[in-house]
Amino acid sequence: MEDEQPQVQVQRGPRRGYGRLIVVAVIAALLAVFIVQNGADTQLTFLWFDFTWPAWLVILLVLVVGVVAGLLIGAYARRSRRR
Predict the structure, then answer these.
(1) pLDDT tier at 1 (50, 70, 90 boundaries)?
(2) I need a surface site. Which of 10, 41, 43, 61 has the fewest CB within 10 A?
């Protein structure tokens, strides 16, 4: 007769994705409040362009440009370290 090993089930903690999901939900809620509170139009002048946009859109555009620039600079720095 063969000796059978007992089956052991490992209990795992909560899924990792919940933390990220909570962070994304909080950021989305803050963004919604920010958009509602900053709906007034803002007059902008850039070089020879004059235009009017909502304040939230201007700030969001600057945020996106900053994030993209940061990602590009980070990717360049990682690439240059490998060489």
Answers:
(1) low
(2) 10
